[in-house]
Amino acid sequence: MNFITSLLSNLNYGTILFLMLLESTVIPVPSEFVVTPAAYHAAGGNLNIFLVILFATIGADIGASINYIVAFYVGRPVIYRFANSKWGKMCLLNQEKVEKSEKYFDDHGIVATLTGRLIPGIRHLISIPAGLAKMNYWKFLLYTTIGAGVWHAILAGLGWYLHTIVPEDQLNDKIAEYAEYIKIAILLLVMAAIVYFVIKAYLKKKQA
Fold this sequence. Notes:
11 helices; 208 residues; globular; mainly alpha
């Protein structure tokens, strides 16, 4: 944890990529406390906000791919065994959380890989049911990139905005305060995306 704290206090493109890689596996690294402060510093001229989003998304893609590949090859029993182990508990993981992500994937199909990247508690685990379901990797990567990119753009926008109203020593408190607003915005986006894909599938079926 001290190692993570050290990285958070020295944000650059490399640490952003690495921390988002961890966040997309099973390591509990909150992305709002990585991308938002990085964008805050970008607004001050220390980083480029577009590169912040890019490197964060690349990191998320790598981490999600690790989860996908592990789930693809080792299967559900091993995943559950790890989730229930001491190491799984240290990563704030348990079988119930994995099952929740699987249910979300089953309910929404492959689109869940995109929308699931936006939902707290499911975001970093949605790649596991994708791997278990043997989803096409390139389609998985495309949806993961879009979902992660949208999420990081939202966080970056928040960081850029906070730079105009909050001194740096109050930043983390303000991020936590805005977390609820972010969740509401994310849920609205996810609902809109689900409605879009449902209507698109219906129209396609009707034409067929």
